[in-house]
Amino acid sequence: MSNLGHKAVASLDDLMETSPGSTQRLLVAAAALGLPPIELHHFPEGTKTAQDAAVAIGCSVAMIVKSLVFVVDDHPVLALVPGDLRLDTNKLASVAGGQRATRAPLDLVREATGYVAGGTPPFGHARSLPIFADQKLARHGELWAAGGTPSTVFQISHNDLLNVTGATVCDITE
């Protein structure tokens, strides 16, 4: 992997001292969930889109976990989708037990998760949300997810991702 232009901070103490509050909340949540210490990678150029993240990290875009907040019949849900695929809103609505799924407005993303869109991690949210993980995430054992900001990411195994999120694994992509 080519990790040009980024900074990895090694210790949890360093991370807590140098990271914004949103990333600190993620680190605390990861520790509380029993994950091994997260190695956070910061890319000043940003990793707001899956393609941006893959280029910055030097990995396949399929290894990027998009954490997408949608509203299904007036209730926010989180969809975890591989970076190379598009969410199918009809499939998401169906697995969530609703009729219609629409992208959540930016203020609702922040309210429901505590994070901005483009930096939303798969866990550590402000409130409990139903989480749905596309089955195609299993194509890769190691994945990359947003680290609380649009410029930070961390690596997580597929198994750990499913264990800490409690996500329902299903087919939610086009």
What keywords describe this structure?
single chain, 174 residues, alpha/beta, YbaK protein, nine-stranded mixed sheet, 6 helices, 9 strands, 25% strand, disordered N terminus
Structure description:
This protein is an alpha/beta fold. It has one domain (7-170): YbaK protein (Alpha-Beta Complex), CATH 3.90.960. It is 29% helix and 25% strand. It is built from six helices and nine strands, in the order E-H-H-E-H-E-E-H-E-H-E-E-E-H-E. It has helices spanning 12-18, 21-32, 50-57, 89-95, 106-113, 158-165, and strands at residues 7-9, 40-42, 64-72, 75-82, 101-103, 131-134, 142-146, 152-157, 168-170. Strands 1, 2, 3, 4, 5, 6, 7, 8 and 9 form a nine-stranded mixed beta sheet that branches. A hairpin with a 2-residue loop joins strand 3 (64-72) and strand 4. The longest helix has 12 residues, at 21-32. It is globular. The two termini are 29 Å apart. 43% of the residues are buried.
Short description:
This protein has about 170 residues and is α/β, with parallel strands linked by helices. Helix content is about 30%, strand content about 25%.
Fold blueprint:
Blueprint: E1 7-9, H1 12-18, H2 21-32, E2 40-42, H3 50-57, E3 64-72, E4 75-82, H4 89-95, E5 101-103, H5 106-113, E6 131-134, E7 142-146, E8 152-157, H6 158-165, E9 168-170
Parallel strand pairs: 3-7, 4-6, 6-9
Antiparallel strand pairs: 1-2, 2-8, 3-4, 3-5, 7-8
